[in-house]
Amino acid sequence: MNVHSKKADSSDSDLVRLALAGVEKDRVGDVASNPAAAQLRDRGPCVLPAIEDVVGSVTASATSDDITSVRFHGLSSVLVSYFEIAKESAIERAAEFVKSLSPEAQHEALTAIWSIWLGRTRRERIPSTLLSSIEEIASAGTEVHNQQASSLLRTHTKYFGTR
């Protein structure tokens, strides 16, 4: 589901599908990497429509079991790549995208947001536009998603004060 009008490039869409499947995962010690997701990051903002289209469409009817299955093994990597790209120049787009996702995919998106802005090695203020979307998810989502979004908001407030 593309939240903007720009059409996704088919080669970008193919790369997103490859990254979602987690194909060609490399292992370095105990850390798995997803080379296709890294390639998405390298392509920059032009790949955002493809990520939105592919992730939105393939996860729209997915259950939580589907999301955690091999079919979507690379979803977290794709979403981390998405938010790393969007962080630089497309945060409003990212805020709309996260709201457009299914609740199951929102769970993974919130985890990616946590990783990008509040992870162990990062402590950065989440942009207000994205915080507003997280607040909407916290108030409208299922209990599990509400708890996850609320926890993210509480942690952000702990580090940075008021939203």
What is the fold's blueprint, element by element?
Elements lengths: L9 H12 L4 E3 L2 E3 L1 H9 L4 H12 L4 H4 L7 H15 L1 H10 L2 H16 L9 H13 L2 H18 L3
Antiparallel strand pairs: 1-2
Please provide a brief summary of the model.
With 163 residues, the chain is mainly alpha-helical.
Shape: globular
What average pLDDT do the residues reach?
A: 84
**Portion in beta strands:** under 5%
Compute the separation of the termini in Å: 29 Å
What value does the Rg take, in angstroms?
15 Å
Overall domain count:
1
Order of helices and strands: HEEHHHHHHHH
Structural class estimated from helices and strands: mainly alpha
If helices are DSSP runs of H or I spanning 4 or more residues, what is the number of helices? 9
How many strands, which pairing sense, and closed or not: the largest β-sheet? Answer: 2 strands, antiparallel
Helix content: 55-70%
Q: Which regions contain 5 or more consecutive residues with pLDDT less than 50?
A: 1-5
Largest sheet: spatial strand order: 1-2
Count of extended strands: 2
